[in-house]
Design a protein that fits this description.
- This protein has a single domain, classed as OB fold (Dihydrolipoamide Acetyltransferase, E2P) (Beta Barrel).
- It is built from one helix and nine strands, in the order E-H-E-E-E-E-E-E-E-E.
- The strands form two sheets. Strands 5-6-7-9-8 form a five-stranded mixed β-barrel. A three-stranded antiparallel sheet has the order 3-2-4.
- A hairpin with a 4-residue loop joins strand 6 and strand 7.
- It comes from Natronorubrum daqingense.
- This is DNA-binding protein.
Length: 146
Amino acid sequence: MSGSEPAPVEDRRDSWEGPVPIPSGANETFWEATLEGELLYQRCEECGTSQLYPRAVCTGCGTTDPPFETSEGVGTVYSYTVCHVPGEPGFSDRTPYAVAAVALEEGPRLLALLDCDPEAVEVGMPLEVTFWQVSEEAAIPVFVPR
């Protein structure tokens, strides 16, 4: 996902058995963009704080409705865990799997599923976003090695 080029969106609606996001309020714009292969984050115009997941207020200064910007969709593994016991319904066929705190180049971090061999994951590993469409309203960001 470089420049204005969207990331791939793979339709997983028929096979996904995990949790499904329900867009509402401050996160509706975020989830709409995922269906188009875009990863959005918020950057406050008042204090410069960047944040993800979407919120109605800036976590830095409390300004309401911080605007969205489009991420390049690249970052690195900040921290991770390998799950050997499924923590959510729909993940039993996936174990073991890796979940990482991904540090985006723009600054914010988000927790995301990694689509790769969990034994290959390491802190600092470069990643890029892809999306799995899991409903008519949302595609979840999933990261793969760059």
